[in-house]
Amino acid sequence: MQENIVIAAPLITNDAVVLGLLALILGFVFYTSNSKNNVCRTFYKYVPALLMCYLLPSLLNTFGIVSAQFSQVDDVAKYFLLPACLVLLTLSIDIKAIAGLGSKAIIMFLTGTVGVVIGGPIALLIVSVIWPELIGVSGPEAVWRGMAALAGSWIGGGANMLAMKEIYLADGKIFTIMVTVDIVVANLWMACLLYIAANHKAIDAKSGADTSAIDKLIADVESFEKAHKRTPDLKDFMLIIAIAFGAAGLAHFAADLLVPFFQQNFPELKKFSLHSKLFWIIVLVTTIGLSLSFTKARQLESVGASKVGSSFLYILVATIGLHMDITQIAQAPKYVVIGLIWMAIHVILLFAVGRLIKAPIFYLAVGSKANIGGAASAPVIASAFHPSLAPVGVLLAVLGYALGTYMAWMCGQLLRIIGS
């Protein structure tokens, strides 16, 4: 006789209250992480603000205050805010400006992307020799599903990580572990890149790299910023909202037609996520965003389109936290090894190609962080070389957002073959 498992209702079940709590948490994290208070500065020096955006909501779940099983807030975030976020983060791509960086910059960026795509499957193969239980699992708790989500983060950033989590149906436990791996491994590499930035002149002189294009780039960026910067008004924000949710609505409409078509005519393509409504929504909004980047809509970036998109992103981050069980983080060390091997492959490939084409170390560093971390950290690394280069980090990171949907999905398919 099968027992019925009764799940106790949390203290708060009203979704309006849940959303309000998440908003307050995000406001608290951003306020304190930018505070000049010495205690706050010391705390956030060692604990990334992004990690707090995950962990604080998880405490609501851990102590029974809120439960994702009783809330629809994460569904709203997943199906409405995520598509809108991706549109706003991709419409600002300037293909001409990226081309102006020179072929070496693009080569290094794409090398970093390839390093992530092939590094994950190779890392899983290596560690499976030591821990064979990590492969051969096909359920939502499978390691390969969590790694597919991590691939999304490492090719573009948090929005793609959340997208891959939903596409590959990774459960909250393995996703929480991979979030920890992301924070630990990516921050170690961040520290290495900051050291490299501080010594970039000596490194470039030793490698014989030509940095004249970097000097010209600094002058061009400063000129562009002065020419386009302006204060946004209400009309600008309404246009941003119209494009974001209009594109999301169009993607939903198309997905409602595409999913039944593929289910009825191509049932064998289910394993490639072509029966997933969210897969089509994400691919379509990314494509719409790329298309808009060739129109005047791209000028909305000058009034904060990506910032609005990022605000949606952090709401998504907080809703994912409601699925977390922080007690599972103790299992992370085994998976950190996977992350370290994965990152090592990414880094070795970057240095090998960089040495081959004599690329300035700036291109290597920013090309890497435009993948590993995206718009949240690429500008930091770029500005460590020169403050005027921060927008270059954003530019390449936005390209990472565009490629992340496609390349992380490809990495997920390779992981699925190995891990399931």
Description:
With 420 residues, the chain is mainly alpha-helical. It has one domain. It is 73% helix and 0% strand. It contains 18 helices and no strands. It is globular. The N terminus is likely disordered.
Keywords:
18 helices, disordered N terminus, 420 residues, mainly alpha
- For the CA atoms, what is the radius of gyration? 21 Å
Q: What is the distance, rounded to the nearest whole angstrom, between the alpha carbons of the first and last residues?
A: 31 Å
- What fraction of residues sit in β-strands? under 5%
Q: Which consecutive residue ranges, at least 5 long each, have pLDDT under 50?
A: 1-6
Task: Categorize the overall geometry.
Answer: globular
Short characterization:
This protein is an all-alpha fold and 420 residues long.
In terms of topology, how is this protein built?
Blueprint: H1 15-33, H2 38-46, H3 49-62, H4 73-90, H5 95-100, H6 103-130, H7 143-154, H8 158-167, H9 172-198, H10 200-207, H11 212-228, H12 234-265, H13 277-292, H14 305-321, H15 332-357, H16 361-371, H17 378-385, H18 390-419
